[in-house]
């Protein structure tokens, strides 16, 4: 169930990355058309220097590669968020203010946040100060807070 709720985010991110790549490709084609038009319409008595043309092409190629790198990074970040979200399912969670807690039934991943839904139907945004613990442990102060990048399982030792 939790995988279904985060799978739509993955496909949306992939579509966004494909759109960015297609946009970069169209821009590259437009650049080549402009370069050809520039060459056709240049002043024959003062032609454009070949090194200027190569420099323009190289600069635009670098921009295109940066756009593709960004789309790959977006995809990697989305995949990482899905991995993290799937690890949270079944664990206990306590909100930052301590008023809401329960066992995580599903996690929905957004572009800027993750929202956990407990088995009771409560929704908790996973943010700094939220405590996530192993299943079956009481959500007390001995759990690792999500602002720490270490795994939460290693810090939970309930007697």
From TrEMBL:
Which Pfam families does the UniProt record give? FlgD
Renumbered to this chain, the signal peptide range is none
Q: Where is the composition biased (Low complexity)?
A: 136-147
Q: In which residue ranges is the amino acid composition biased (Acidic residues)?
A: 148-159
**Classification via InterPro entries:** FlgD
Q: Sorted alphabetically, which keywords does the UniProt record give?
A: Bacterial flagellum biogenesis, Cell projection, Cilium, Flagellum
Q: What does this protein do?
A: Required for flagellar hook formation. May act as a scaffolding protein.
Family according to the record: Belongs to the FlgD family.
The UniProt entry, under NCBIfam families, shows: PRK06009.1
Q: Could you identify this protein by its name? A: Basal-body rod modification protein FlgD
Give the organism the record lists. Rhizobium halophytocola
